[in-house]
């Protein structure tokens, strides 16, 4: 399961690097899960 903490960590990375799109991959479950994350505008 991808947590809010994981999501916000990717958002901070995207903000600091000025990258527009990130992919969060979860290896902690039996099945691989992916989530595309677009940088939030601040």
Task: Name some characteristics of this structure.
42 residues, alpha+beta, two-stranded antiparallel sheet, 1 helix, 2 strands, elongated
Summarize the structure in words.
By secondary structure, the protein is α+β, with helices and mostly antiparallel strands. It has one domain (4-38). Helix content is 33%, strand content 29%. It is built from one helix and two strands, in the order αββ. The chain has one helix spanning 4-17, and strands spanning 21-26, 33-38. β1 (21-26) and β2 (33-38) form a beta hairpin. It is elongated and about 35 Å long. The mean pLDDT is 93.
List the helices and strands and how they pair.
Elements (H helix, E strand, L loop, with lengths): L3 H14 L3 E6 L6 E6 L4
Antiparallel strand pairs: 1-2
Q: Which percent range describes the beta-strand content?
A: 25-35%
Quantity of strands, as a count: 2
Output the radius of gyration: 11 Å
- Shape summary: elongated
Number of helices: 1
Cα separation of the termini? 27 Å
Low-confidence stretches: none
Taking the sheet with the most strands, its summary is: 2 strands, antiparallel
- H and E string: HEE
How would you state the average pLDDT, rounded? 93
> Reading side by side through the largest sheet, how are the strands ordered?
1-2
